[in-house]
Amino acid sequence: MLKLFTFLTIFILSSPFSHAGSCSINLEGNTMMQYSSNTIEIDSSCSEFVIKFKNISTVAKEYGGHNVIVSKDSDFGALTSLVDPTVHSAENGYLPNSNKLIAKSPIIGPNETYDVKIDVSKLNISEKYVYWCSFTGHWGVMKGNLVMK
Questions:
Q1: At 89, which CATH number?
Q2: Which DSSP string corresponds to 65-106?
Q3: Rounded distance, CA 54 to CA 68, Å?
Q4: In percent, how much of the chain has pLDDT > 90?
Protein backbone atom coordinates (compact mmCIF):
# COMPACT_ATOMS: atom_id res chain seq x y z
CA MET A 1 0.00 0.00 0.00
CA LEU A 2 2.83 2.39 0.87
CA LYS A 3 4.47 1.71 -2.51
CA LEU A 4 1.20 2.52 -4.31
CA PHE A 5 0.78 5.76 -2.34
CA THR A 6 4.40 6.77 -3.06
CA PHE A 7 3.99 5.99 -6.78
CA LEU A 8 0.75 7.97 -7.04
CA THR A 9 2.24 10.95 -5.17
CA ILE A 10 5.28 11.05 -7.48
CA PHE A 11 3.08 10.61 -10.56
CA ILE A 12 0.72 13.42 -9.60
CA LEU A 13 3.50 15.83 -8.63
CA SER A 14 5.42 15.18 -11.87
CA SER A 15 2.33 15.35 -14.07
CA PRO A 16 2.25 18.24 -16.59
CA PHE A 17 -1.22 19.03 -15.29
CA SER A 18 -0.25 19.40 -11.64
CA HIS A 19 0.74 23.07 -12.06
CA ALA A 20 -1.87 24.02 -14.67
CA GLY A 21 -3.97 26.06 -12.24
CA SER A 22 -1.07 28.29 -11.21
CA CYS A 23 -0.11 29.12 -14.82
CA SER A 24 -3.31 30.92 -15.75
CA ILE A 25 -5.84 33.36 -14.36
CA ASN A 26 -9.30 34.57 -15.29
CA LEU A 27 -9.47 38.36 -15.65
CA GLU A 28 -12.46 40.54 -16.54
CA GLY A 29 -12.82 44.13 -17.65
CA ASN A 30 -16.11 45.87 -16.77
CA THR A 31 -18.22 48.90 -17.70
CA MET A 32 -16.60 50.97 -14.93
CA MET A 33 -13.18 50.59 -16.63
CA GLN A 34 -11.92 48.21 -13.96
CA TYR A 35 -10.17 44.89 -14.07
CA SER A 36 -11.44 42.19 -11.72
CA SER A 37 -7.98 42.02 -10.11
CA ASN A 38 -5.36 44.68 -9.34
CA THR A 39 -2.52 42.15 -9.14
CA ILE A 40 -1.60 39.04 -11.10
CA GLU A 41 0.99 36.70 -9.62
CA ILE A 42 2.97 34.45 -11.94
CA ASP A 43 4.71 31.40 -10.55
CA SER A 44 8.27 31.37 -11.89
CA SER A 45 7.97 27.61 -12.51
CA CYS A 46 5.54 28.34 -15.38
CA SER A 47 7.01 28.42 -18.89
CA GLU A 48 3.89 30.11 -20.21
CA PHE A 49 1.26 32.06 -18.32
CA VAL A 50 -2.21 32.70 -19.74
CA ILE A 51 -4.49 35.59 -18.83
CA LYS A 52 -7.98 34.41 -19.82
CA PHE A 53 -9.49 37.81 -20.45
CA LYS A 54 -13.22 38.53 -20.82
CA ASN A 55 -14.82 41.91 -21.47
CA ILE A 56 -18.00 41.99 -19.36
CA SER A 57 -18.72 45.62 -20.21
CA THR A 58 -21.89 46.53 -22.08
CA VAL A 59 -20.21 49.34 -24.03
CA ALA A 60 -19.59 48.62 -27.72
CA LYS A 61 -15.99 47.91 -28.72
CA GLU A 62 -15.61 51.07 -30.80
CA TYR A 63 -16.78 53.30 -27.90
CA GLY A 64 -15.11 51.62 -24.95
CA GLY A 65 -13.68 48.17 -25.66
CA HIS A 66 -11.05 46.63 -23.43
CA ASN A 67 -7.85 44.66 -23.80
CA VAL A 68 -4.77 43.58 -21.89
CA ILE A 69 -1.24 44.85 -22.56
CA VAL A 70 1.72 43.51 -20.56
CA SER A 71 4.86 45.62 -20.31
CA LYS A 72 7.59 46.65 -17.95
CA ASP A 73 6.40 49.36 -15.59
CA SER A 74 9.33 51.49 -16.77
CA ASP A 75 8.01 51.32 -20.39
CA PHE A 76 4.42 52.19 -19.47
CA GLY A 77 4.66 55.94 -20.15
CA ALA A 78 6.46 55.50 -23.47
CA LEU A 79 3.93 52.91 -24.64
CA THR A 80 0.84 54.89 -23.66
CA SER A 81 2.21 57.83 -25.67
CA LEU A 82 2.15 55.58 -28.76
CA VAL A 83 -1.57 54.71 -28.48
CA ASP A 84 -3.31 56.14 -31.55
CA PRO A 85 -6.65 54.77 -32.79
CA THR A 86 -6.43 56.97 -35.92
CA VAL A 87 -3.26 55.15 -37.04
CA HIS A 88 -3.33 51.70 -35.42
CA SER A 89 -6.16 49.17 -35.50
CA ALA A 90 -8.18 47.78 -32.61
CA GLU A 91 -6.73 44.39 -33.58
CA ASN A 92 -3.31 45.79 -32.57
CA GLY A 93 -4.64 47.44 -29.41
CA TYR A 94 -4.21 50.87 -31.08
CA LEU A 95 -0.44 50.37 -30.69
CA PRO A 96 2.39 49.92 -33.18
CA ASN A 97 4.55 46.81 -32.96
CA SER A 98 7.21 47.31 -30.31
CA ASN A 99 9.79 45.16 -28.57
CA LYS A 100 8.61 46.85 -25.35
CA LEU A 101 5.35 44.89 -25.53
CA ILE A 102 5.66 41.61 -23.66
CA ALA A 103 2.14 40.46 -24.55
CA LYS A 104 -1.04 42.05 -25.86
CA SER A 105 -4.57 41.34 -26.92
CA PRO A 106 -6.77 43.11 -29.42
CA ILE A 107 -9.46 45.49 -28.20
CA ILE A 108 -12.51 43.29 -27.65
CA GLY A 109 -16.19 44.07 -27.19
CA PRO A 110 -18.90 42.95 -24.77
CA ASN A 111 -18.83 39.25 -23.83
CA GLU A 112 -15.81 38.59 -26.04
CA THR A 113 -12.81 36.70 -24.70
CA TYR A 114 -9.15 36.48 -25.55
CA ASP A 115 -6.31 34.41 -24.09
CA VAL A 116 -3.22 36.55 -23.56
CA LYS A 117 -0.19 34.25 -23.58
CA ILE A 118 2.96 35.37 -21.79
CA ASP A 119 6.30 33.72 -22.41
CA VAL A 120 7.58 33.67 -18.83
CA SER A 121 11.20 33.46 -20.02
CA LYS A 122 10.81 37.12 -21.09
CA LEU A 123 10.21 38.15 -17.46
CA ASN A 124 12.83 38.90 -14.85
CA ILE A 125 11.95 38.38 -11.18
CA SER A 126 13.72 41.64 -10.21
CA GLU A 127 11.78 43.78 -12.75
CA LYS A 128 8.40 45.48 -12.20
CA TYR A 129 5.66 44.68 -14.73
CA VAL A 130 2.17 46.02 -15.34
CA TYR A 131 -0.89 45.05 -17.32
CA TRP A 132 -3.18 47.72 -18.70
CA CYS A 133 -5.91 48.56 -21.19
CA SER A 134 -4.76 50.48 -24.27
CA PHE A 135 -8.17 51.88 -25.20
CA THR A 136 -7.60 55.64 -25.18
CA GLY A 137 -7.62 56.94 -21.62
CA HIS A 138 -8.56 53.63 -19.99
CA TRP A 139 -5.02 52.96 -18.71
CA GLY A 140 -5.45 55.69 -16.11
CA VAL A 141 -7.68 53.36 -14.10
CA MET A 142 -7.34 50.00 -15.87
CA LYS A 143 -3.86 49.11 -14.71
CA GLY A 144 -2.57 46.39 -12.44
CA ASN A 145 0.71 44.91 -11.23
CA LEU A 146 2.07 41.69 -12.66
CA VAL A 147 4.36 40.03 -10.11
CA MET A 148 6.76 37.11 -10.51
CA LYS A 149 6.93 34.86 -7.46
A1: 2.60.40.420
A2: -B--EEEEGGGHHHHHTT--TTTS-GGGTT----TTEEEE--
A3: 10
A4: 85
